[in-house]
Design a protein that fits this description.
This protein is of the alpha/beta class. It has 21 helices and 31 strands. It is globular.
Length: 675
């Protein structure tokens, strides 16, 4: 009797981006690289993420004709955290600094990141060897009743908490006990020294918790409704997979999740080991380098939205440049340039498709006016997030927020002063309000190169923009088509600039942005000048993103190498999400506070030994156990663990003197799948 072959398990990949949610159904069968069985897209619905997720996944299941019960693993990547940091969005949180002075806020961009969010200082902290100062949490305790009414979470950072987290744990427990709100402690996110940057990372993590929590909850709710009983994984910023529960506690690690997944997907689809990968989305363009089949990692931590974090992630440079970038005009120039980004707008074509006459009637009204207005083609609409996320608004912000509803309103009717414009921008930064306006996506609709939304609204927006005046008082373009061509040409040129800027920066060259701009400008100018300049990448570009075939069509001649756009480039992130591995790490430090005493700081414990070898052995046991536990929590039952130790020693009069040891365990394995 012939044994019945067991069917190959199916994997569902989801990518929730700023504009679209993608889904892909993949099987390991069908060749060395597996096979994409079906793919689909749906609009990301920020007010209720489950709507966009269900739209994409239901479409992919219908295309494949698959029983949902056959899916054994679901993996998700997202650009929501990246976009939130680029756009300055996130929940309002309180920062608790233990053992720090107010002057420390000026370091590593912490004050700029904090903005108007509250901060509480308290005495305490530890020294480099983990010895404690006196802890005083009375100020924090007194502030909690008011803070819990106006913030969505807390970030706690104590001085040298990576050497002894006791004071962070005390503050964390107090806050959780009194408020029940989410608390992030800095030692949970990084074992690196550098208090202000660790505090910055913790602050950003706390801001993102509600956003990632809503994404995971929406996805889990959808899967349960469809009877998909499979583990849910999330892609981290270094391309590794972790369980949804793990990601919920450490959402900062999902910054660059989407781009990291796209790198994994790019390598999988093209087979190219060496390439520059440029992923253009609605909000951002993310550029990274593949070397020998692996993405380069940034040892200093990911930089997103101008903030250098302590999150290990792909060495990705993120630029506020995408299909939905704000189109603006250079101020005061006789022949003003087209400016794109970094802010994302809701394209008028998309707003028109969703809201119909509410959008087009306002644009038509503005076109009937004899002269262009500075707010023409701009509308505001609520994002639809839960009302609790609007806590802590000022009087002016609350008043304007009340006036903005679920139907877009023209800014020339909504705003009555420049001060209100600044207030609106703050509401946008809080993620409470979207602004709709003319974007490259609209330009593509005008020219017939994109047709998935409302071309009539796009054309009205282009007409309004084209009749803006230059420094001589003339219209900046003769027609909607003319201005749309200029916008798309600008997007391709700026794409070449950010790709070359990334290459120069990876090569360690100063002034990378200036040089890249000059070289691309010479390449597109009809009169390049006396000095002949040219540049060529040493490897091809892999263009990713649904709009890559459109915007990267003329890219090769500007970067001096091929531009490869794979067949499934539109779902590279979703595909990359299902072909990765779980990978987590744990660290321990061994120091010598005084001769003959060896102190091991690992996890949340601090222990002393009288022998160096015993201390190192204990550190290795600790990190192995911690890494194994984290690997299980992160979603794998088959982790392989590697341990590496690095020693700092000196030689005094021929004698070896121990200073410090750094012990790291890395656990990796394929994610567990449903049986």
């Amino acid at each position: 009797m012939t044994a019945k072959l067991k069917p190959s398990p199916l994997f569902l990949g989801i990518d929730t981006g700023g504009t679209y949610t993608d889904a892909v159904l993949w099987s390991e069968a069908g060749g060395p690289g597996g096979k994409v069985l079906a793919k689909a897209k749906a609009l990301t619905t920020r007010h209720d993420l489950a709507v966009g997720i269900s739209g994409a996944v239901d479409a992919v299941l219908q295309k494949a004709g698959t029983d949902p019960a056959a899916i054994k693993l679901v993996s998700m990547s997202t650009t929501l955290a990246t976009n939130a940091l680029v756009e300055g969005q996130g929940g309002r949180v309180a920062l608790v600094m233990i053992g720090f002075a107010e002057g420390d806020l000026a370091r590593d961009g912490l004050k700029a990141a904090l903005g108007t969010d509250p901060v509480v200082f308290g005495a305490g902290g530890h020294d480099v060897h983990g010895n404690a100062a006196k802890l005083d949490l009375s100020g924090l305790e007194a502030a909690l009743p008011e803070l819990e009414k106006s913030v969505s979470g807390f970030a706690v950072c104590a001085y040298f908490a990576t050497r002894n987290p006791a004071h962070e744990l005390a503050a964390r427990d107090l806050i959780r006990d009194r408020t029940g709100l989410p608390v992030t402690a800095s030692h949970e996110l990084s074992a690196k020294l550098g208090g202000p940057r660790r505090a910055l990372t913790t602050l950003l993590n706390a801001r993102l918790i509600s956003m990632i929590d809503r994404l995971v909850a929406a996805t889990e709710g959808f899967l349960a409704a469809r009877n998909i009983a499979a583990p849910l994984m999330v892609v981290r910023g270094d391309g590794a997979l972790v369980s949804a529960a793990f990601a919920r506690q450490r959402p900062i690690e999902t910054i660059l999740s989407g781009p990291a997944a796209s790198l994994v997907g790019a390598r999988h689809m093209t087979g190219l080991d060496d390439a520059v990968v440029s992923d253009i989305g609605g909000t951002t363009t993310d550029v990274a380098v593949l070397d020998k089949g692996r993405p380069r990692l940034d040892p200093e931590g990911a930089t997103v939205g101008g903030f250098r974090t302590m999150v290990e992630a792909v060495a990705m440079r993120t630029f506020g440049l995408g299909g939905d970038s704000e189109v603006a005009l250079e101020d005061g120039a006789l022949s003003p340039k087209i400016l794109l980004g970094p802010r994302r707008l809701v394209p008028l074509a998309l707003a028109g498709m969703v809201h119909g006459d509410a959008v087009t009637s306002e644009l038509e009204r503005q076109l009937r006016a004899p002269n262009p207005g500075r707010m023409d083609g701009r509308l505001a609409v609520r994002t639809g997030v839960p009302e609790r996320l609007a806590a802590g608004l000022t009087g002016a912000e609350a008043k304007l927020y009340e006036l903005i509803g679920a139907v877009p309103q023209a800014l020339d009717r909504l705003l009555t002063s420049n001060a209100q414009n600044a207030t609106l921008n703050r509401l946008v930064s809080r993620g409470l309000v979207h602004v709709a306006g003319f974007t490259p996506s609209d330009a593509a609709h005008v020219l017939g190169r994109q047709a998935n939304w409302d071309p009539a609204a796009a054309r009205l927006g282009a007409e309004l923009f084209a009749r803006r005046r230059d420094g001589r008082g003339q219209f900046i373009a003769a027609s909607p088509e003319a201005i749309s061509e200029r916008v798309l040409t600008t997007l391709t040129r700026l794409s070449a600039e950010v790709i070359l800027e990334t290459a120069f920066a990876e090569d360690g060259l100063d002034g990378a942005a200036t040089v890249a701009h000059a070289l691309v400008q010479r390449a597109v100018d009809a009169h390049p000048g006396i000095a002949r300049l040219s540049v060529a990448l040493d490897r091809p570009v892999i263009g990713l993103g649904a709009s890559a075939p459109l915007h990267y069509a003329g890219l090769a001649e500007l970067v001096g190498n091929d531009c490869v756009v794979p067949e499934d480039t539109d779902v590279a992130n979703a595909l990359g999400a299902v072909v990765g591995q779980v990978r987590v790490s744990a660290e321990a430090r061994v120091s010598q506070p005084k001769e003959g005493l060896f102190r091991v700081a690992s996890g949340e414990s601090v222990r002393d030994f009288n022998d160096e070898a015993a201390a190192i052995a204990a550190a290795e046991r600790d990190v192995r156990a911690i890494a194994a536990g984290r690997a299980k929590d992160a979603g794998t039952d088959s982790a392989e663990i590697e341990i590496a130790s690095e020693f700092r020693v000196s030689t005094v009069e021929g004698q070896r003197m121990f200073i410090e040891a750094h012990v790291v365990a890395v656990a990796s394995g394929r994610p567990r799948i449903a049986v």
